[in-house]
Amino acid sequence: MEEEAMEDISLKELAKKLDEFAKARDWQNYHTPRNLLLAMVGEVGEVSEIFQWKGEVEKGLANWEESEKEHLGEELSDVLLYLIRLADICGIDLPHAATKKLLKNAIKYPPNPFSS
């Protein structure tokens, strides 16, 4: 896959690639909602470990080494990929569900009229 094409990939395209990846390895039987959720939680734990002793960090991670940023990107990608696969296996249209949730949150948490 070319890097240019990877940058603009949609969640649906990623779900399709994940499905193809699992089928090519005969992993479909292992990709149950429970197993995918537990795997995702494990990956969230790995992201937590990266931040565990860092204290508060600045946006953009200005003081981090490139290797640390790359490691974080890999672990965040693992979380995202498991989330996409879980949604797909559960029959959830994740972009649609996320958009609906944003709209619900906009109603539930209206902007502060006094903030600038």
UniProtKB/TrEMBL annotation:
Subcellular location: Cytoplasm, Cytosol
E.C. designation(s): 3.6.1.12
One term under GO cellular component: cytosol
Major localization class: cytoplasm
Gene Ontology biological-process annotations: dCTP catabolic process; DNA protection
Cofactor: Mg(2+)
PANTHER family named in the record: DCTP PYROPHOSPHATASE 1 (PTHR14552:SF2), PTHR14552
Reaction catalysed by this enzyme: dCTP + H2O = dCMP + diphosphate + H(+)
Function comment: Hydrolyzes deoxynucleoside triphosphates (dNTPs) to the corresponding nucleoside monophosphates. Has a strong preference for dCTP and its analogs including 5-iodo-dCTP and 5-methyl-dCTP for which it may even have a higher efficiency. May protect DNA or RNA against the incorporation of these genotoxic nucleotide analogs through their catabolism.
InterPro entries: DCTPP (IPR025984)
Protein name: dCTP pyrophosphatase 1
Organism per entry: Sesamum angolense
Keyword vocabulary terms for this entry: Cytoplasm, Hydrolase, Magnesium, Metal-binding
One annotated GO molecular function: dCTP diphosphatase activity
Quaternary structure and interacting proteins, as annotated: Homotetramer.
Taxonomic lineage from the root: Eukaryota, Viridiplantae, Streptophyta, Embryophyta, Tracheophyta
Entry keyword annotation includes DNA repair: no
